Amino acid sequence: MHKLLLIICFYSLCAQTVVAQNHVTDSLLKLATSAKEDTVAVHLYFDIGSSYENNNPQKAKEYYRKAGELSNKLGFTAGSIKFFTYYSSTFMVEGNLDSMLYFNEQALALSRLAKDSLNIGIALFNIGIAYRQASNFEKAIEYCLEGRVIMEAKGHKKIEVQMNDALLALYNSRTEYQKAIPFGVKAVQQARELKMKEFLPQPLLNLSLAYLETNEYDKAEGLIKEALQLAKEINDTRIEAVATQNMASVFMRKGDYGKMEIFALRSLALYKQIGSIDGEAGALRALAVCYLQKKDFLKAKEYAEQSLAICRANNYKQEESSILGVLSSIHYAMNDVVNGLKFDTESNAILETMVREVISQQSANLEKKYETAKKESQIKDLEANRKVQQLTIQQKNTLNYILIGSAAVLLLISLLGYRNYRTKQKFQQQRINELETEKQLTATEAVLKGEEQERTRLAKDLHDGLGGMLSGIKYSFQTMKGNLVMTPDNQQAFERSMDMLDSSIKEMRRVAHNMMPEALVKFGLDTALKDFCNDINQSGALQVSYQSIGMQEANVEQTTAITIYRIVQELINNTMKHAAAKTAIVQVSKEGQAINITVEDDGKGFNTAILQRANGIGWSNIQSRIEYLKGNLDVQSAPGRGTSVHIEINL
Fold first, then answer.
1. Contact partners, residue 470, CB within 8 Å, separation at least 6
2. How high is the pLDDT of residue 2?
3. Helix, strand counts (H, E) of the chain
4. If DSSP codes are grouped into helix, strand and coil, which group holds residue 606?
5. Which helix or strand (DSSP H or E) is residue 313 part of?
6. 363 pLDDT band (50/70/90 cuts)?
7. Parallel, antiparallel, or unpaired for β 594-601 and 543-549?
8. Residue of 323, 325, 278, 320 whose CA lies nearest to 303
9. Checking DSSP bridges between strand 594-601 and strand 643-650, what pairing results, if any?
10. How many Å separate Cα 159 from the centre of its chain?
11. How far is 538 from 61, CA to CA, in rounded Å?
12. How would you classify the pairing of strands 583-591 and 632-637?
């Protein structure tokens, strides 16, 4: 009995529209004549090839090759993978298992390169089917289950139907029919639910085989009849051929050799039509068995010899062993014991060879597994040694890291200690500088206070002492003038003496006033500066303009006021001595807790760089007083452009 197992392709092909095959092919061929060279044309060629596959495999190959060549030209990887998958299925129809396996392996390699997990699963499953067809069931199960895991994760229902059907056929091949039946029932049920009319005959036929081998002939016959009806509706010659051959097997089991002959002859004609060599060999063997049971030994021998020739030409060892067994039975039935024994011996020899090959293969596999296990053990030992070495290296590295870390910490602590020492040293030096500055300021303050006190004392002494004496002398001279009789010359000399005495009194008063302005003590800084500027104006030595802002009600401490007064006084004196100026401006303003002083003149100016090396008492006094008040000094001057001095003092 021929066992049906179609190769798994892309699930979309499992749900084609149910129309007459010739009509579909003609429509597709018309589209192909006007198709452009793009991916649409690739899919069109695949559809045309698929329509030919079961009835004309060579024609199907022609269009599959066109699809593959165009896919390569376009760089369409999915099309190239599909080519290998579809092309391999034509070799299964022809019974060329080596080519079927080769092209599925190409599909797997390209799918892995493209990281296409779905096609990887399909290729693995199809390789399993190829091994199943070659009776290598161990590898078949290995590849099928690996592919099934990948494809189930994708959740494609139609592919799941094909997987269940493939596992049904695989367990049938291993004669594990009780395991096969649940997969078959599920595949048939799913195909019906998904309305996979073109695919449904396949699980129907494979499930019928399981029922046939478990002696449930009526169930098997019902499934085959349904498959035959569907095959005719969809015009699928290959499925019809398989169904017809399987029906012949049912009638053989039932002992109805007349019907068996009809179905066997029909299946042979169909296999020849589609060029299925292995199917033809199986149909010929079925006819040989049929005629053997009908005791038509010559016909039985004729069909058996034809089947044997095909098997030997195509190296179908399992089928050859079966047909040799049939020939042995035919010759025994013809009382030809010699040839009967000969064919029986040849059949057993092939079976023994196949068994030895299986045992040899299993031994090789076991030896390979042993070598693999041995290598894995060696690898594990090497891995263990490597881990020990790595652990030793890690321990050494850890120790090195600890030492390096400790050194780094010590270095960091040393740096921090040194930095702390330098910071303390800088702070101490800064504190020393501040103390020295404070000491200098205190000394300056003491000098300035002492100077002002001495000036005040001298001013009082001059005013009260010398001033009183000069005033008394003047009064005495005026009294004497009324009691003396003088010549005109003496009178003139006396008047000159009185004028000189008046001048002395005025000069004494001016000196006393400069040493301690009376207005500063009585009326404050603003009035004192205004009087000072007026006195300069009256002297005619310099025209001074005084401006004050916010100073009328300013409450300035007396020591500060005296110091500011002396600064302005010294600056104006410098202007008169050195600047050759005609006019000057004195501006004093108070903003918040700050007093701003500006003294400008239109004199000849000078290069301010000479102030760095100036050693005059006047400029030194100005700087000392500003430092005492913790003020800021800015001098702007240039030759021929006058001088501007700006002082800012925070009270």
1. 501, 504, 505, 508
2. 43
3. 23, 5
4. coil
5. helix 297-314
6. low
7. unpaired
8. 323
9. antiparallel
10. 36
11. 130
12. unpaired
Q: What is the pLDDT of residues 230-245, one digit of tens each?
A: 988 888 888 888 899 8
Mean pLDDT in residue range 266-282: 89
Q: How far is CA 600 from CA 166, 527, 534, in A?
A: 113, 20, 16
- The residue whose two tokens read 């010759």 is 331
Structure-token match 């199917």, residue found: 279
Taking alpha carbons only, the member of 109, 112, 62, 111 closest to residue 87 is 62
Scored b (16 or more CB within 10 A) or e, 428-445 reads eeeeeeeeeeeeeeeebe
The residue type found at 253 is R
Cβ atoms 536, 586 nearer than 8 A? no
Tokens of 271: 């296999």
Higher pLDDT, 367 or 220: 220
pLDDT (tens digit per residue) in 387-430: 777 777 887 888 888 888 888 888 888 888 778 878 877 877 77
Closest CA to 164 of 182, 146, 178: 182
Given a contact cutoff of 8 angstroms between Cβ atoms, the answer to whether 608 and 637 are in contact is yes
Coil, strand, or helix at residue 178?
helix
Q: How many CA atoms lie within 13 A of 31 on its CB side?
A: 15
pLDDT in the model for residue 181 = 92
The 543-549 sheet, strands edge to edge: 543-549, 583-591, 594-601, 643-650, 632-637
Distance CA 75, CA 411 (A): 64
First vs last Cα of the chain: how many Å apart?
Answer: 122
7: three-class secondary structure by DSSP: coil
| Spacing of C-alpha 375 from chain mean position | 39
How sure is the predictor about 485, in pLDDT bands with cuts at 50, 70 and 90?
low
Q: pLDDT value at position 583?
A: 92
Within a 10 A sphere around the Cβ of 19, how many other Cβ atoms?
A: 12
pTM of the model: 0.45
Per-residue pLDDT band for 109 (boundaries 50, 70, 90) equals very high
d(CA 225, CA 245): 12
Residues, the chain: 651
Cβ-based neighbours of 427, under 8 Å, separated by 6 or more: none
- Distance of alpha carbon 630 from alpha carbon 546, whole angstroms: 24
CB count in 10 Å sphere of residue 599: 22
Q: Are 554 and 613 in contact (CB under 8 A)?
A: no
HEC profile for 353-390? Answer: HHHHHHHHHHHHHHHHHHHHHHHHHHHHHHHHHHHHHH
Per-residue pLDDT band at 12 (split at 50, 70, 90): very low
Q: Point out which residues pair with 588 in neighbouring strands.
A: 548, 597
Residue with token string 């595949």: 187
Name the residue with higher pLDDT: 399 or 370. Answer: 399
Q: Take residue 565 and report the two structure tokens written for it.
A: 């007064």
Q: What is the pLDDT of residue 517?
A: 67
Considering just the CA atoms, what is the radius of gyration of the chain in Å?
A: 64
Lookup: tokens for 201? 């005959």
pLDDT in tens, 134-168: 777 778 778 877 877 777 777 677 777 887 887 78
pLDDT value, residue 229:
92
Query: 470 or 413: whose pLDDT is higher?
Result: 413
Domains (range + CATH), the chain = 522-650 (3.30.565.10)
